[in-house]
Amino acid sequence: MKIAVCIKRVPDTETRIKIGADGKSIVEDGVKFVLNPYDEYAIEEALQLKEKSGDGEVVAIAMGSAASQETIRGALAMGADRGILLQTDAVSVNPVTVAKVLAAELDGAGYDLILFGKYAVDDSSQAVGTIVSELLSLPSVSAIGHLELADGKGTAEREIEGGVEVVEFSLPAVVTADKGLNEPRYPALRGIMMAKKKPLEVKPVELGDGGMTVIQLALPPERPEGRIVGEGPDAVPALIEALRTEAKVL
Amino acid sequence: MTDLPYWTEEHHQIREMVRDFAENEIRPIAREHDLESKFPWQTVKRMGELGLMGATWSDELGGAGLDYISYLIIIEELAKVDVSHAITVSAHTTLGTSPIVNFGTEAQKQKYVPLLATGQVLGGFGLTEAQAGSDAGGTATFAEEKSDHFVLNGSKVFITHAGVGEIFCVTARTDPHPAKRTDGITSFIVCKDTVDLDRAREVGIGHAEDLEKTRGVKAGKKEDKMGWRASDTRELILEDAIVPKEDMLGEQGRGFANFLQTLDSGRIGVGALSLGLAEGALNESLAYTSERRQFGKPVAAFQGVHFQLADMATEIEAARHLVYHAGWLKQNGKPHKKEAAMAKLFASELCMRTTIKAVQLHGGYGYTTEYPVERMMRDAKVCEIGEGTSEIQRIVIARQLLGDLVQL
Fold first, then answer.
1. Residue A135, CA distances (Å) to A176, B228, B288 in order
2. Cβ–Cβ of B70/A186 closer than 8 Å?
3. Given the DSSP bridges, would you call strands B297-298 and A173-177 parallel, antiparallel or unpaired?
4. In the beta sheet, which residues pair with residue B294?
5. Where are the alpha helices (DSSP H) in B137-254?
6. How far apart are CA A102 and CA A128, in angstroms?
7. Sign of dihedral through CA atoms A43, A49, A53, A56?
8. How far is CA A121 from CA A14, A15, A117, A210, B355, in A?
9. Which CATH superfamily is domain A2-204 in?
10. A189/B66 Cβ within 8 A
């Protein structure tokens, strides 16, 4: 069983984002970068599938600047067998251009399963995994919460409004991982030591702009402080009034 | 995070992992284990699986083969969240395991270290006695030499893991009338069953069925402590304990010199622990003072609070350099007696000051168990006492300074 996990280096969700002087990019100085949290579920699932089948290979693939090597080594420390960095300093906002670069790497490499996180927490486009499956003409299931593989077939569960959808598909396939798919492991000290010795291949790639450019970045407006309108049942009319006239949600 | 020349990318990875583990797995249970003075078997098991119980020992001995700086990082990160977990790893590693690694025969290492390094059983170090603490030369536990064994009698106090642990390095007098009172002390390895047998079997850690136990070794009453309450501290009683000669650790009569070396490195570990505790208290204070509003603005907007926070952070920065510099010296095989004592002295007194300030910055809430700073303040005090009191550290430093200048 050969499994690819596509991962991304993203700013930590607890980092306070500052917008650069150009108004179109974020200031990276002092920002802590981490492995995209949803990708952790994807890696864990791949490792569990490999462990269950008793053999196979898990390859962690990232696209990004040289700094993404650190992110890949994090995946290797968790237990992935080798890593590939598709290296570019360009930042694309068009998921199609990113998907094309990944698809070119994945195409013909013989993967039985390609895993993604359901989205990257930086731009939240939620599109790259699905576009890759289109480019490779593979079935895809997004945001899965459970996965079973048997006899060249997969069964995945995904949460939908008010219920669970069960999807069956043939392999090879692309799936994207949702929170709750599993409990990602911490890399053990031994894993961190071994990660240094695992192969990490760096391949320079070119990105087209894909016809999309960033015009402006802006922080969300600051939320005004909350207000207590009163306590107990007597406060209900005032609350309703405020929700009607101020918040305009009723 | 400030970068230091001692740290590599791998060190940062280790720090991240331990930080995540401490935040997610230890923080939610720290309060309960402190309150009930309960040993955290479940998280200790997880720490064993992650390799934290034997980070620096070689692969062949079941360790992760990391350097000493990595070990300090582990202790520091655990202590930021819960000192009891940090001291459990520290006492187990430096006190319980390192004497066997450093002074043991090949056979002793093969027999005991893998069990300890993987965290399968907990280890401890029995030096302190009722009448021999700072004055370790006053050791009264006696080891009577017989044909192929020694018979040990005595009692060790304040022994970390004396209850939960199974493997111990203890010191005993083998020469009743030595030329110097620090001569004639010898180290031995003794084993006993953990006091938490049922719990250990249930969790699947803490007990080695096949490990031969020493008759006459048992745990005494558990200490009810001000801090470090989730760490196990008890008396270790040796009552006609029969210790075969192959379990003598290091040369006969060399016990004193050996444990002084053990304590030197233990001090850097307690320095890292104290540093982590101070950082944890600062982090809590930053979060609380930014959130808590008085007079229409966050408490942190007042200059009086700025001064406190700035002083805490500056002293922490100084402690960080002392601790990691001492660690770097040790790692590179350079003399570090003075620097280890300085790191321990400064960091431990710092964590006391910092945690007191943290409680003050939290106001009334800081005095309640709703916030962890009251626990941190209780946990800090013993840092100035354990593994050599502040006074002893000053004596060690002064002796290094004065050297041959004055007859001491």
1. 16, 58, 50
2. no
3. unpaired
4. B297
5. 197-203
6. 9
7. negative
8. 11, 12, 10, 21, 36
9. HUPs (3.40.50.620)
10. yes
Q: Tell if the CB–CB gap between A189 and B50 is shorter than 8 Å.
A: yes
Q: Choose the catalytic residue: B77, B223, B284, B387.
A: B387
- Contact between A95 and A211 under an 8 Å Cβ cutoff? The reply is no
Task: Tell me the C-alpha distance between A90 and A98, whole Å.
Answer: 10
A/B interface, count of CB pairs below 8 Å: 40
Q: Does A187 touch chain B (CB under 8 A)?
A: yes
Question: Chain B residues with CB inside 8 Å of A193's CB?
Answer: 10, 64-66
Contact indicator for B91, B161 with CB cutoff of 8 Å: yes
Q: Which residues of chain B have pLDDT under 70?
A: 1-2, 404, 407-408
Mean pLDDT of A2-8: 98
Q: How far is A15 from chain B (nearest CA, A)?
A: 13
ipTM, interface predicted TM-score of the complex: 0.86
Residues in chain A closer than 8 A to B93 (CB atoms): none
* Closest of A114, A96, A104 to residue A45, by C-alpha: A114
Q: Strand A2-7 to strand B293-294: parallel, antiparallel, or no bridges (unpaired)?
A: unpaired
**Which of A189, A196, A198, A200 to mutate against chain B (most B CBs within 10 Å)?**
A189
For A123-171, what is each residue's pLDDT tens digit?
Answer: 899 999 999 999 999 999 999 999 999 999 999 999 999 999 999 999 9
Give domain limits for chain A.
Answer: 2-204, 220-250
Residue with tokens 């106001």: B363
Quote the minimal CA–CA distance from A186 to chain B in Å.
Answer: 6
Tens of pLDDT along A21-51? 999 888 888 888 999 999 999 999 999 999 9
Which chain A residue's Cα is nearest to B56? A189
- From start to end of B227-284, where are the E strands? 233-244, 248-249
For the question of residue B387 being annotated catalytic, the response is: yes
Helix axes B373-381, B337-366, angle to 10 degrees: 150
Whether B13 and A77 lie within 8 Å, measured CB to CB: yes
C-alpha–C-alpha distance, residues A246 and A244, integer Å: 6
Put simply, the answer to whether A193 touches B65 (Cβ < 8 Å) is: yes
- Parallel, antiparallel, or unpaired for β A153-160 and B167-173? unpaired
